[in-house]
Amino acid sequence: MSCGHDHHSHGLSGGALSAELVAADARCAEAGQKLTPPRRRVLEQLLQAGQPVKAYDLIAAFADGAPAKPPTVYRALEFLSKQGFAHRIESLNAYVACRHSAAEGADNHAAAFLICDCCGATREIDPAVLDSIETAARGPGFTVQSVTIEAHGLCADCGAG
Question: 3-class DSSP state for residue 66?
Answer without folding.
Answer: strand
